[in-house]
Each structure stands twice: as structure tokens, then as C-alpha cells.
Amino acid sequence: MNQTLLPVTEVTCTPYDDQRPGTAGLRRKVAVFQQPHYLETFVEAVFRAASLPAGARLVLGGDGRYFNDEAIGRIAALAAAHGVSELVIGQHGLLSTPVASHLIRSRRADGGFLLTASHNPGGPEGDFGIKFNVASGAQAPEAMTDRIHELSRQVTRYRVAQLPPLDLARTGKIGLPGLSIEIVDSTADYAALMQGLFDFDAMASAIRGGLRLRFDGMHGVTGPYAKRIFCDLLGAGPESLLRAEPLPDFGGLHPDPNPVDAAELVAQSLAADAPDLLAASDGDGDRNMILGPHSFVSPGDSIAVMLAHHRHVPGYAGGVPGVARSMPTSRAVDVVAEALGLPCFETPTGWRFFCNLLESGRIGLCGEESFGTSSAHVREKDGIWAVLFWLNLLTVLGQPLPAILAAHWHRFGRHHYQREDYFIADAARASELVEELRASLPGLAGQSVPGTRILAADEFSYHDPVDGSVSDHQGMRVLLEDGARIVYRLSGTGTSGATLRVYLERHSRQPNAIAQPPEVVLKDLATLAARIARIAEITGVHEPQYRI
Ligand code: G16
């Protein structure tokens, strides 16, 4: 018997040439996505590259930024025309990135579209993005994103089904010919996942006993999840949440949880009556920043402390098989892994590189300098998970956050760390800098520099131990004889110009040095890094736009 299907229209178009996904999906200005057929061309290329089974099930949602809901309707129309038979969509079009990954896994979906430009600004003048995650919940691997780009240049026609307008506010099922759409309130699913990992009774009791939490949602997607978990389930008061209402333009702010963009929270951490734990998450809920009274936990320290104490947290009490960090991330976690006798993997920047390691059971925790941390519970980084991990640690260790950090540094030494971001409006200048630096690498080893010598200089290449793939040109590193390290790479998440990231790191074991702030300990390294790469001469940019 023939099944009745939605009417489908074929549309002809001219392909675009610029749809190569970056570090995490395709990110462009909203105006670029609003060009005729731009979104459809990319999504069509994803469908062609993904080769989904007939009657596939997909998850669909985003961080609520401007253009989110319109994109959901248009992607749903393409999906139906491609024979997708089930769509799971977040209520109000909202799904945080880790929750989308979780839903893909828990609903046994064949993949999902995540509509986000993460921490990039939103609104009509801001950025938009589309990311495709595969059936494991992981971001599409590099071979697939290369294929998507190749196919996007060949799309001259696509098909769309005619769907009625979707009411994304109302949860429940919408039955259409050949297509079932389920609008889900994902906060319950996510809270249940977190309850399986953390000791909610102990955390609630600590909050009842006076532990004070402050969470800044930065008007991104995490507000509803934070309210459900921190307030409804753990009993924190409403004053614990800041900017917890998702807004399409993030209130005009840059929703990036770092000390510069979340300066207000940092100021609260420095007040005399600072809460015990302060944290922020980004637009799509995958990044996190952790603070305590007069303390900032750098992302590299965060994953290191988590690893050192993971057996105290119920979901990790059985231990983890290993850990991973991206190459530019501080090596603080390596020192802990070595002490625990665990393997520590070094991957390129980009969460997708952790996913094979997670999927094959080689690692149980991973983290990145860009304020991302997570575990094998999903295949994305997870902001609220990181906050709960720290809250659980404060509860079981019974020590204030600054004391936990100080004890960690006392035992393992401190990896002073800083990232400098140089915004270079003319991307050609940035490419020139990279080419020149690459050419200079072989001659750097052995050169004397103030106070020490360059031990080695190379370009990072990753050999994936699971699928054997090789990823070249993943950042240039300069190692000094005193153990300090400089790393250079270009950002893959921006939407205009180029951003050169310079990562500085020095490991200190002496109490005097440990007590110093990173900007003091790393000052000479910053000067050396700028000199080696001839940043000012080649680009005309003399100062970083950000020091994080
Ligand atoms: C993405 C990736 C991360 C990466 C970060 C920074 O994060 O998922 O793995 O570390 O970009 O990338 P870049 O240095 O190339 O700008 P998000 O939170 O933006 O999705």
C-alpha cells in the first residue's frame, strides 16, 4: 500500500563556494545565512554526505539565537523531503549542545542538526551556525565535513516538503503524512542524566546548609536547565541565577564564559561576601567558567582537578580509563594522569577529535583551554555538567574552592597559562604570518632566548589511534629548555578576518612562583612569542585584543 506523503517541491539554485565547516560546524553572519538558498544548500550537502537510512530519526534544536526558529522550519522541510520520518525538536526550538548530543544517543536517532554559533554574538547583525552530529552524538568527523564542503559546491537543486507552521511552544507529537514530529521539554531528560552522575542529595544538603552558588546563563540556552537543576532540584534560591532567560541576541552581550566577557561574575567573585562557587556557560551551553571566592579556575586546572578527585564523584567512582586534552591546552592534566598511571591523549583543537577516544572507551574525561570540559556521558562538552562536578567536589571534599586549588598546586605544581588573541582584520596577513612561522620552525631549535634556549619547534600532526586518520597543520609549538611552551594557531570559529591565538604556558613548582599571577609569570614568554612570530611586523597588530 502506498503511504501518503507530504507534497514536495523541487527548487533550483546556484551553489555557494564558501560552505567549509570550521572547528565546529558552519558559522557565518546571519546575513550570509539569509541569502537565497544558503541554508538549504548546506543542509542538502549534509543529507547527501550523511547517507541516512530510509525513515531516519533526527534531533533538531539550537541555542535560541536570532534565526533559530526559521532555520528549524526550513531544515524540517528538507528533512521530510529526504524521507526522514521522525523529528525530535526542542521546545521553543531550544536544545543545548550537550543535550542535543544526549538526545541523539538516548533516542537512538540517526543524527541531529544543532543550530548554534556557540559563544559568538547573536541578533540580526550577529552570527548563526549549523552543525551536524552523527548517530553517536558526536560532531561530524573531519572526513565528513570535508565531504559536506565538496558536495555543497555541487548543489544545483534540492527538494523541500510543504509543512504546516510548527508550534514549537507546545510539547507533544504532531502527526503529519509520513512524518512524526515530537516537541520535547529536554530539561527533564537532562536533569535525569545529571542525577545519574552526581550526588544530588549531598549537594542539596550542602546548599540547605549554606553553600552559595551563582550561575550566569549569559542569556544563552542554559537558563531553563539551570533553573530546573540548581533551583528546583537542588534548592538554590532565585538569586543564584543571573541572565537565565534565553534571548535571541543574548541581551547584546558576547555569550562567552571567560574573565573578559563574564567580567561581572568575576567582580562578584572578588567581593567580600562572594558565593562559594560561581560559574557561567555560553550561548549553546557547552562551555563553562568556574570561579570561587578570589579564585579563577583556568580550564586546564579544572580538568586536572577533576581528574585528581574523580573517584569522589558517584558517576566516576569506578575510575576512568584515560583522559585527553587538546594540544594547546595546559599540560596540568598530564601531570595528574601520570601520577595516577592513566594514559593522557593529546588531540587537535576541536571537540570532535575526542569523540573516537570516548566512543572506543579509551578516555572518560577530556577538556580544552577554550573553557570546555566533559566526560563520556555525551559526545560534546557540557557547561552545566562541569558546574555540577565542581559543586559535587566542594560538597564531598568539604573544603572551599580556593583551598582545593591551592592543595592541587602544592601537590602537582602550577601550570601558569594564558591565551592571547590577536584579531587581524586582513586574513591574508594572518596566512602570511602562519606561512613565515612555519618556514622558520626548523631553524628555531638551539637558538638562545632571554634566560633559556629553544629546545624544539614543530607543527602538530595528529594520528587518530582509533580510525588511523591523520590531521596535519594543527598548530605550531615552540618548546623552551626551561619547560615553558608557546603554541600558535588560527581560530576556526570566527566569521570575519582572522584571529591568531597564542597560548603561553609555564610550569612552576616553587611556592613563590605558584603564588604569582599568570600575567607576571608569563610576561617574558608573551614578548618572546610576539617576537618569534613577528606579529606586529607582519600584521600591523601590536597588542592582543584579548588576554584570557
Ligand atoms: C569550538 C570547538 C572547540 C574549540 C573551540 C575554539 O568550541 O568545539 O573544540 O576548542 O571551538 O576553537 P577556535 O580556537 O578554532 O576558535 P565552541 O564552543 O565554539 O563550539
What's the topology here?
Elements: E1 8-12, E2 26-29, H1 30-33, H2 38-50, E3 57-62, H3 68-81, E4 86-94, H4 97-106, E5 111-115, E6 127-134, H5 142-152, E7 157-161, E8 172-176, E9 179-184, H6 186-195, H7 200-208, E10 213-216, H8 223-233, E11 241-242, H9 263-269, E12 277-281, E13 288-292, E14 295-297, H10 299-309, E15 323-326, H11 332-340, E16 344-347, H12 352-359, E17 365-368, E18 372-375, H13 383-397, H14 401-412, E19 414-424, H15 427-444, E20 448-449, E21 452-459, E22 462-463, E23 470-471, E24 476-480, E25 485-490, E26 498-508, H16 511-515, H17 518-521, H18 523-533, H19 535-539, E27 546-547
Parallel strand pairs: 3-4, 3-5, 4-9, 10-11, 10-12, 15-16, 15-17
Antiparallel strand pairs: 1-7, 2-6, 5-6, 8-9, 12-13, 13-14, 17-18, 19-26, 19-27, 20-21, 21-24, 22-23, 24-25, 25-26
Helix pairs in contact: 2-3, 2-5, 6-8, 7-13, 10-11
